[in-house]
Amino acid sequence: MSGGLLAAVRDLPPESTQQAVGYPSLFLLVSLGALVPVVPTGAIVSSAAVVAFHQSSPFSLLFVFLVAAAAAFLGDLALYWLGQRGVRSRNGSRWLGALRSRVTPDRLAHAQERLDSHQVSVLVLSRLVPAGRIPVMLACLLARMPLRRFARGDAAACLAWAATYQLIGILGGSLFPEPWQGVVAAVGLTLLISAVPALWRRLRGGGRDALRHEDA
Length: 216
What we know:
The protein has 216 residues and is mainly alpha-helical. The protein has ten helices and no strands. The protein has helices at residues 2-10, 15-35, 41-53, 60-88, 94-101, 105-118, 122-128, 133-142, 147-175, 179-215. Helix 3 runs antiparallel to helix 4 (60-88) and helix 3 (41-53) crosses helix 9 (147-175).
């Protein structure tokens, strides 16, 4: 299966076809990933940036940046609006329940503490830290932050996020002569970055458990 994927990436279609198919696909995948937080949107943006880096058009990278940021922003707003409906409803909603199910109580408490201290600016950091977006969004929902105020902070967050993952793609594209090689490198790097917080929490949790046993 991996061999077929590499072969498909090696045999890239002409630039006009890439742009006609690639930008709408990028928008759809990133906006879907913002709504359903299981799609690795960072890897998608980095891969698109690698392909754009090897194209002759000087605006390819700019279009990738704008499309990715806009898709992330609209997806975030849609998810926040759906979550607001659950907060206002006496019985909640499945969207709010899905957000709650993805956040542990300690991570929610930490996000609420950061939100109280730093207000909207914490939204920017939440999108740059892997797995940090949902806890902060849930904290904003429970604090009943208005959609307009959330949108102001999230706009800057999405621009910073798109720029960061595009830079990862540009780095991968500049290190390797073939686009498919840069795509593989960019995807590997973004997946590694996304795995670091989970690994850190596991190690930190193991350390706390060891201390509890020593105290006992």
